[in-house]
Design goal:
The complex is a heterodimer of chains A (85) and B (887). Chain A is 20% helix and 29% strand. Chain A starts with 16 loop residues before the first strand and ends in a 5-residue tail after the last strand. Chain A has a single domain, classed as RPB5-like RNA polymerase subunit (Eukaryotic RPB6 RNA polymerase subunit), CATH 3.90.940.20. Chain A is an alpha+beta fold and 85 residues long. Chain B has 887 residues and is an alpha+beta fold. Among the domains of chain B are: 118 residues, no CATH class; 175 residues, Beta Barrel (Barwin-like endoglucanases); 142 residues, Enzyme I, Chain A, domain 2; 155 residues, Orthogonal Bundle (Topoisomerase I, Chain A, domain 4), CATH 1.10.132. Chain B has 26 helices and 30 strands. Chain B has a six-stranded mixed sheet. In chain B, strand 2 and strand 3 form a beta hairpin. The chains are: A alpha+beta (85), B alpha+beta (887).
C-alpha cells in the first residue's frame, strides 16, 4: 500500500482535536452565545481535518486546541463549501 | 447582538443613456464658460441651469441661491460612442466569451450547468474568461470566433487571416463593440454576474456624457480679477470642442481618415476626463505643465475623497506646538502656554449655582492678562443659539463685558478659557498605539511650548529635538469623564503590549537614582533636605542611621526608602547584576542584590530594572499593590529625587573621559597586532589549501567566519582592557551599568577599538575589482582592507577606516528608512482589518455585525494591561511580599 494513504492528519501533533457536534450541542452553543449559524467562524468542506472526521456541509465542528494563555481553548466552526477559485 | 438593520446585498449598476438624459436639466453645446460681461453662456459649461456659485444669482432649475442649490447635471451628446476607461476589462471579458455574430454565450446550456454546478448548490459564482476556450465555434450559430486583442488604454482589435494566411489586426471601433454588446441576451448575462435590468453591457460604451453640476467644479476668481476654471471644466471644454468639430466634419462628409483621427482624439479626452493616470496614455496637462486632477484623481489615494475627506477630517478645539521638558510637572500634567490657554475654550452651561462665577469669568474677557489671574471667556451662547463674541473695548469703546455679565442667566453657555486642572488629550504622531493619545491635566505656563515630564516620553516616543505635539480639548462632560477614566496617563502606565510599565525614569533619572543609591553613603541633615528639595515629603525623616560626634547622619538607602510605600517587600536583581554563577546576595560587591523589607531599602542599587520605563519592577509592583494613582505619585517622586541626586554629585561627560593610560594603549595595540597576525596566519593556511572547511560551508566562507571571530574577540578584549581602567568614576560607565543610556560596547568603541564594519553581516567586499579601495593590493584578504577599524573614536580613524565606517553606517540608515515605511503600511492594513472588532459582554470577540471572531478574548479573557508580563497573576510577587524573602 502506498505510504501516503496511511497518513491521518488527526494524529499529527500539530493538528488540534476536531469533532462533529451533535444537534443538541449546536443548539446549546447557539443559545449561549445568542447567535445563528451564520455568525460562526467557518471552515471549508475540503479541509483535511474536516474530511478526516467526515463532517458534511452545514455541520458544526468543535476544535479543542492547546492554548498558551488558557491551557485549553475551545472553538467552533461551521463547515461551508469552498467557493470556486 | 444583531444590529437593527443589516445590509443584505449591494447592487452596482450602470447609468443608461436614457437615465443620463432624464437626470440632465440642460443639453450643453458650447465650450465657452462666461461672456465678456462675466455672465454664463446659455447652454455653455457654466449654464445657470446647472446650479449657481456666484452670490446674488439664482439657479434657473430650482431658483435657490448659491450655497442652497445643490447643483444639477447636464449632458453632452457625443457625435460617436466612446469607451468608458473604467470598464475596459469588463468589455474585454464580454467580447471574449460571447459570439461575434449572434451575441450568445459561447457555451451550450449543458456546459454552463457543468461549470456553475447543480442549482441547489449554487454559490452565486459567475463564469470567467477562462471557462471559454479561445477561438472556438459558436454552439448556437456555428460562427468561427476570432481572437480579441486588447491594447491599453482603450483599443480593441480582432485577429483575422488575410489571403496569404498572415495574421492581420482589425481594429474594432467603439460603435462596433457597442453593437456586439447589444446582442448579448439577458439570460446569458446572469451567468456572467451581471444584472441586465440595471447594467446592460452596452452602457459601458458612452453615447451621452453627463456634465457634473458647477457646484462640484467651481471657478475661482484670482486677485487680478481673472477667472480660473476647475480642472474638470477644462477637460469638459476639450471634450465639447472636439465633439463639435467631429460633428461638423461628419456632416460635411469628411474623409474616413480624418473621422478616425477625431474619433480617437475624442476617446482620449473622455478617457483622461475619467482617469488621468491610465497606463499607456499620456496624462492631459494644464498650460503650466501640471497634470490635470480629473474624476478618478479626486477619489484616489491619501488626499482623495475617501481617505482625505471622509475617513479623516480637520477638527476644531485643537492646537499644536513644539514640546519641551519640564521635570517639575507631574506625569499627569501638561504645560500649556498662556497664549493657547486664552484661545481654546470649554463650554460651561450656566446654572443658578455657577452664575456668579461665570459673571466674573465674563468680566475678565477674552484676554487673561497673566498666569495667576482667573480665566476669562471668548464667547457666550444665548438660549436661542446666537453666539456673542466678548470684547474688552478700549478708550471710548466700552466693550460688552459688563453688559453680558448682567444679561446672563441659566440656560446660557459660556465658552471659558482653559485653566489649571482641566483635562485635555495630548497626542504625538505617528499614533501607533493607544498610549500615543493620553489625557493630561492642564497647567498653564509661560513660554510658547507644550511642557511634559520626560518620564512620559517613552509612550509617545517623543524627544525634544524639535518634536511637535497636538492637544485636543474634550467639549462635554461625557468626553471628559471618558478621557479621565480610560485615557489618562496614570491609567496607561502599564502597556498592553507586554504587561509592564511603559512610563518611568529615563536617562538622567536612572543615572541619578543609581548614583544616589549605589553602595552606602551618609548624608547630614542639610544634604537630605537638599535632596528632597523638590519632593513633598510630609513626615519626618525618622531616626538617623548613625550619629557621629553628635551629628546625625542618614544613609542614601534611607533617603530613597522615604518615597517607597511603607509596607513594600521586594527582592530582585538590579540592571548592574553580572549574573554570577553563585549569587552572594546581600554581600554582592556590585551592590546589585536589591532587598526591600517593610518599605526600607536594605541593600542593592536602584536603577533601570527598578524604576526605568519598560522594566521598572518597583513601579509594576506598586501599581499591582497600591493602584495607579500611587504609582504616578511614585514616578513623580523618583524623578524629582533622582534629579536632585544627580545634581548633588554633578554629572558630566566628554570624550577625554575615555583616555586610558600609556600601558593600556600598549596592551590594546598588542592585542590588535596579535589578532592581525592570527588573521594573516589563517589566510596563509587557506591559500596553501590546508584549511579544513566547516560542515556545509566552502573554505572561503570558513575563512571569513574565522576572521570575523578572531577580530570580534580582539575588539572585545580591548573593551575589557578599557573597562578595567574605567570604573564607576567614569560617567559613561555609570550610564552603561545603570542602564540609563549606552552599553559597554559603546565604551569599547570610544576607548578601545571600533572593530569590524559589516554590510549584511559580512566583511566589506564591494568596491573595485578584487579589492575594496585602490589603496590595497588586489586579492588582499587582510583585516585592514576589508573594513576592520583598529582605531577608537577617541584616537581617530584613518581615511580608509573612515570610509569603511561610512559604508557600514549607511546600511543602518537605509535599514531604518525601509523598516519604517514597511511597518507603516503593515500597520495600516492591520488597523483596517481589526478596527471595529470588539469584546462583547459575554467575553467573545465579535464584528459589529455580531459574527464571532474568537469565542473568548485571548482564550483566557485576560486584559494584557491588567496582567503581569503576560501572566494573569503575579504569583511570585505576592508570595515574595508575604514572606519578605526571595522565592
Amino acid at each position: 500500500m502506498a505510504l501516503s494513504s496511511e497518513v491521518n492528519v488527526l494524529k499529527h501533533e500539530m493538528v488540534p482535536e476536531h469533532s462533529i457536534m451533535s444537534a443538541e450541542d449546536v443548539e446549546l452553543l447557539f443559545s449561549t452565545y445568542r447567535i445563528g449559524s451564520e455568525d460562526l467562524p467557518r471552515i471549508y468542506h475540503d479541509d483535511p481535518a474536516v474530511l478526516a472526521i467526515g463532517a458534511k456541509i452545514n455541520d458544526v465542528i468543535k476544535i479543542v486546541r492547546k492554548s498558551l494563555t488558557a491551557g485549553r481553548a475551545e472553538s467552533y466552526r461551521l463547515v461551508v463549501k469552498r467557493p470556486k477559485k | 447582538m444583531p444590529s437593527p438593520k443589516r445590509v443584505g446585498r449591494i447592487e452596482f449598476g450602470l447609468l443608461s443613456p436614457k437615465e443620463i438624459r432624464q437626470m440632465s436639466v440642460r443639453k450643453i453645446i458650447w465650450a465657452d464658460t462666461y461672456d465678456d460681461d462675466g455672465f454664463p453662456y446659455p447652454q455653455g459649461l457654466m449654464d445657470l441651469h446647472l446650479g449657481v456659485i456666484d452670490p446674488g444669482l439664482r439657479c434657473k432649475t430650482c431658483s435657490q441661491k448659491a450655497g442652497e442649490c445643490p447643483g444639477h447635471f447636464g449632458h453632452i451628446e457625443l457625435a460617436k460612442p466612446v469607451i468608458h476607461v473604467g470598464y475596459t476589462r469588463l468589455i474585454r471579458k464580454l467580447l471574449r466569451v460571447t459570439c461575434r455574430e449572434c451575441g450568445h454565450l459561447l457555451l451550450s446550456p449543458e456546459e454552463i450547468q457543468k461549470i456553475i454546478g447543480p442549482e441547489e448548490e449554487a454559490t452565486g459564482d459567475s463564469l470567467t474568461e477562462k471557462d471559454v476556450k479561445k477561438e472556438r465555434i459558436c454552439p448556437y450559430c456555428g460562427e468561427q470566433q476570432l481572437k480579441i486583442n486588447f491594447e491599453k488604454p482603450t483599443t480593441f482589435s480582432e485577429v483575422t487571416l488575410d489571403e496569404r494566411g498572415k495574421k492581420v489586426d482589425n481594429k474594432l471601433t467603439p460603435a462596433d463593440i457597442r453593437s456586439r454588446l447589444e446582442k448579448i441576451p439577458n439570460e446569458d448575462l446572469y451567468h456572467l454576474g451581471i444584472e441586465p435590468s440595471v447594467a446592460r453591457p452596452e452602457w459601458t460604451i458612452l453615447t451621452v456624457l453627463p456634465v457634473p453640476p458647477v457646484t462640484m467644479r467651481p471657478s475661482i476668481i484670482l486677485e487680478n480679477g481673472q477667472r480660473s476654471e476647475d480642472d474638470l471644466t477644462h477637460k469638459l471644454v476639450d471634450i465639447i470642442r472636439i465633439n463639435q468639430r467631429f460633428k461638423e466634419n461628419q456632416d460635411a462628409g469628411a474623409p474616413q481618415l480624418i473621422i478616425e483621427d477625431l474619433w480617437e482624439l475624442l476617446q482620449y479626452h473622455v478617457t483622461t476626463y475619467h482617469d488621468n493616470e491610465v497606463a499607456g496614455c499620456p496624462p492631459a496637462r494644464h498650460r503650466s505643465g501640471r497634470p490635470l486632477k480629473t474624476l478618478s484623481q479626486r477619489l484616489k489615494g491619501k488626499d482623495g475623497r475617501f481617505r482625505g475627506s471622509l475617513s479623516g477630517k480637520r477638527v476644531n478645539f485643537s492646537s499644536r506646538t513644539v514640546i519641551s521638558p519640564s521635570p517639575m510637572l507631574s506625569v499627569n500634567e501638561v504645560g500649556i502656554p498662556l497664549s493657547i490657554g486664552n484661545e481654546m475654550t470649554i463650554p460651561v452651561q450656566a446654572t443658578t449655582f455657577n452664575l456668579d462665577e461665570l459673571r466674573s469669568i465674563i468680566r475678565v474677557g477674552p484676554q487673561r492678562p497673566d498666569l495667576q489671574s482667573p480665566c476669562g471667556a471668548n464667547y457666550v451662547i444665548r438660549p436661542d443659539n446666537r453666539r456673542i463674541r466678548l470684547a474688552k473695548g478700549s478708550g471710548p469703546d466700552e466693550g460688552n463685558l459688563e453688559l453680558i455679565a448682567e444679561q446672563i442667566e441659566p440656560g446660557w453657555i459660556v465658552e471659558r478659557h482653559l485653566r489649571d486642572g482641566d483635562i485635555v488629550l495630548f497626542n504625538r504622531q505617528p499614533s501607533l498605539h493607544r498610549m500615543s493619545i493620553m489625557a493630561h491635566l492642564v497647567r498653564l505656563m509661560d513660554g510658547k511650548t507644550f511642557r511634559l515630564n520626560p518620564a512620559v516620553c517613552p509612550p509617545y516616543n517623543a524627544d525634544f529635538d524639535g518634536d511637535e505635539m497636538n492637544l485636543h480639548i474634550p467639549q462635554n462632560e461625557d468626553a471628559r469623564v471618558e478621557a479621565a477614566l480610560l485615557a489618562s496617563v496614570q491609567e496607561n502606565i502599564l502597556s498592553p503590549r507586554f504587561g509592564g510599565p511603559i512610563i518611568g525614569g529615563i536617562h538622567d533619572h536612572i543615572s541619578g537614582i543609581f548614583l544616589l543609591t549605589h553602595t552606602v553613603r551618609w548624608f547630614v541633615k542639610d544634604e537630605v533636605i537638599c535632596l528632597f528639595r523638590n519632593n513633598d515629603i510630609l513626615e519626618q525623616m525618622g531616626t538617623p542611621g548613625k550619629v557621629e560626634d553628635g551629628v546625625p547622619y542618614w544613609s542614601n538607602k534611607q533617603v530613597f526608602s522615604k518615597i517607597l510605600p511603607s509596607d513594600l517587600n521586594m527582592v530582585f536583581r538590579a540592571s548592574s547584576c553580572d549574573g554570577c554563577d553563585e549569587c552572594v546576595r546581600e554581600t554582592c560587591e556590585r551592590d546589585a542584590y536589591v532587598k526591600i523589607v517593610d518599605g526600607q531599602l536594605l541593600c542593592g542599587t536602584i536603577d533601570k530594572k527598578a524604576v526605568g520605563a519598560f522594566d521598572g519592577t518597583i513601579l509594576h509592583r506598586i501599581i499591582r499593590q497600591y493602584g495607579q494613582a500611587r504609582a504616578a505619585n511614585f514616578i513623580d517622586d523618583v524623578t524629582r529625587l533622582s534629579i536632585r541626586g544627580i545634581m548633588h554629585d554633578g554629572f558630566t561627560f566628554a570624550i577625554d573621559d575615555e583616555d586610558l593610560s600609556r600601558s593600556d594603549y600598549g596592551s590594546i595595540l598588542e592585542v590588535l597586532d596579535r589578532a592581525k597576525e592570527d588573521v594573516e596566519r589563517r589566510i596563509q593556511i587557506f591559500e596553501d589549501g590546508q584549511l579544513e572547511p566547516m560542515p556545509g560551508r566552502t573554505p572561503e566562507e570558513t575563512l571569513e567566519m574565522q576572521i570575523m571571530q578572531v577580530l570580534g574577540r580582539a575588539r572585545d578584549r580591548t573593551g575589557e582592557i578599557a573597562g578595567s581602567h574605567l570604573g564607576l568614576s567614569n560617567s559613561a560607565v555609570v550610564m552603561a551599568v545603570s542602564g540609563a543610556r549606552g552599553s559597554m560596547l559603546n565604551i569599547t568603541q570610544m576607548a578601545g577599538c571600533v572593530g569590524q564594519q559589516a554590510v549584511r553581516g559580512e566583511r566589506i567586499m564591494r568596491g573595485y575589482e578584487d579589492r575594496t579601495l585602490p589603496h590595497f593590493q588586489k586579492g588582499d584578504r587582510g583585516a585592514d582592507s576589508h573594513g576592520f577599524v583598529m582605531n577608537s573614536y577617541r584616537s581617530g580613524l584613518t581615511p580608509t577606516e573612515f570610509f569603511f565606517h561610512a559604508i557600514g553606517g549607511r546600511e543602518g540608515l537605509v535599514d531604518t528608512a525601509v523598516r519604517t515605511s514597511q511597518s507603516g503600511y503593515l500597520q495600516r492594513r492591520m488597523i483596517n482589518a481589526l478596527q471595529d472588532l470588539k469584546v462583547d459582554y459575554d467575553g467573545s470577540v465579535r464584528t459589529t455585525g455580531g459574527r464571532i471572531i474568537q469565542f473568548e478574548y485571548g482564550e483566557d479573557s485576560t486584559d494584557p494591561m491588567k496582567g503581569s508580563f503576560g501572566e494573569p497573576v503575579d504569583v511570585e510577587g505576592i508570595v515574595e511580599n508575604v514572606l519578605k524573602e526571595e522565592v
